[in-house]
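Chain and conformation:
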Amino acid sequence: MTPIHFKVAKHLSEEFWQQTILRFITLRLPIDLPFEISKFRTEFEDVHIIGTFDGRVVGSVVLSRIDREIVRIRAVAVDPTLQGSGIGAMLMEISEDHARDAGYKSVMLHARENVIGFYERIGYVGQGGLFEEVGVPHLRMVKGLCSA
């Protein structure tokens, strides 16, 4: 198997649009959310970390700055045919390393109820109770970033 390559995708690049389609297929389509191109065009300040395999984007994470110390991880997406292969955990590790290197002290995310266990296994802790976002139950989760 060819290794997965991880990198930051440039805003509005071909890889940016590939990961946008991946996010739509894996995150929005299953819960009947429409594709909103204007939403993606406004993400120029966000960091888009992607995983590529044989020239196609198979994983994606978006990092959005909250403040000087906290970054939010959003839109974690892995190609459905490769879910369970470890790509998600690798993407999260690389995203956390990127956030740490950028000087953030912690990361937070809103985990869909069906993936809370995944985030717990990689060190995230839930805060509060479930709440509804985009029509799906979520839990706010956080993880501190220790300096190496």
Notes: The chain has four helices and seven strands. Residues 31 and 135 are 8 Å apart (CA to CA).
